[in-house]
């Protein structure tokens, strides 16, 4: 599992917010919030994605709805879409909105608005809706 190593931060997720990049090993200031992943993280994640054969993505990288904080999410969406040799699964309403906003939804193998349910299904848990459809009495 990879975790972000740098971040884009601001006081609020607003279009005209003053942004700051927080590098590896630096703490996010108490008066700011992480609103996107930084350029080193984008590069790290994109490299890993390019070699993957199965990609499961649940949750955007930042507040992609605000232009100043969309770069990480859109770059990762394109990295997933560009890996034509992988099975790519995107789950969750925000993630679905992100791949659609990045104009790459047609290059994703499977898209589900059920984020938590998708993860539970991959864990092997029984989902009530699926069970009702497959229940043989």
* Name of the CATH architecture: 3-Layer(aba) Sandwich
Head-to-tail CA distance between termini: 41 Å
Extended strand count: 6
Helix coverage percent of residues? 25-40%
Note the beta-strand portion.
Answer: 15-25%
Radius of gyration: 17 Å
**In order across it, which strands form the biggest sheet?**
2-1-3
Chain-averaged pLDDT:
92
Structural class per helix/strand content? alpha/beta
What is the molecular shape?
Answer: globular
Unreliable stretches (pLDDT < 50, length at least 5) are none
**CATH structural fold name:** Rossmann fold
CATH homologous superfamily placement: Phosphoglycerate kinase, N-terminal domain
How do the helices and strands follow one another from N- to C-terminus? EEEHEHEHEHH
What oligomeric assembly is this protein in? single chain
- What is the CATH top level name? Alpha Beta
Biggest beta-sheet profile: 3 strands, antiparallel
């Amino acid at each position: 599992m990879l975790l972000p190593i740098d971040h884009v931060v601001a006081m609020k997720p607003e279009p005209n917010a003053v942004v700051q990049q927080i590098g590896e090993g630096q703490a996010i200031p108490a008066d700011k919030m992480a609103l996107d992943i930084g350029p080193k993280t984008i590069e790290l994640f994109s490299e890993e994605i390019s070699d993957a054969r199965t990609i499961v993505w649940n949750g955007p990288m930042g507040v992609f709805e605000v232009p100043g904080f969309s770069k990480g999410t859109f770059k990762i969406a394109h990295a997933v879409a560009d890996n034509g040799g992988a099975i790519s699964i995107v789950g969750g309403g925000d993630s679905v909105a992100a791949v659609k906003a990045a104009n790459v939804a047609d290059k994703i193998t499977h898209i589900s608005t059920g984020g938590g349910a998708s993860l539970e299904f991959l864990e092997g848990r029984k989902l009530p809706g699926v069970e009702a459809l497959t229940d043989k009495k």
